[in-house]
Design brief:
This is TetR family transcriptional regulator. The protein has 204 residues and is mainly alpha-helical. The chain is 71% helix and 0% strand. The chain folds into 2 domains: 51 residues, Arc Repressor Mutant, subunit A (Orthogonal Bundle); 132 residues, Tetracycline Repressor, domain 2 (Orthogonal Bundle). The longest helix has 25 residues.
Length: 204
Amino acid sequence: MPRVVDPVERRRHLAEAVWRVVRREGLERASVREVAREAGVSMGSLRHYFDDQSELLTFAMRMVIERVEHRVAVLQVPDDPRLAAGRVLAELLPLDPERRAENEVWLAFTARALVDPQLRALRDEAYDLLRNACRRWVRVLLPTGTTEPGVDLETERLFALLDGLAVHAAMRPEQSSAEGLLAVLHHHLDQITASPRPAPEGLL
């Protein structure tokens, strides 16, 4: 009896092959032919799941977002807002091999997004999610009565910090230990922490 192929699992398998090619050889090498070879399937089989390279890359990029969202969704967070913020936002940093791989692939995709409209739309969606998450935690941690311009400023500072740490970790991994990344994040959160207030509904 022929083996039944799970189409969802096969698409993920192909996206992971994209990741491996991108990390090893760069995004410019992630052609349909090269990804099929990496995944151990024929080009015809790959095209059964993705019509072209753009669709394949878009799916692979979205899988980064979905994996981050899943990790955050299953987190057990403390009641203390400051500790909760640290726990959730740490999931957005490349602190282990899995997250380092996601981070390197994500940065390669964002560079390609400059010339690929589909990837650009997905990049903008992800950055909007991150900025909104920063705003929600900033609102919790800032003193009651902070004006909207103050919230806006702290939101952009936290957003820039997380994005900058991710870029630095990809560019100079030998100088970006997990301990160092966490130390910077927690130092920043300590600077804006006010008296405890309820954590926001939803984590991102």
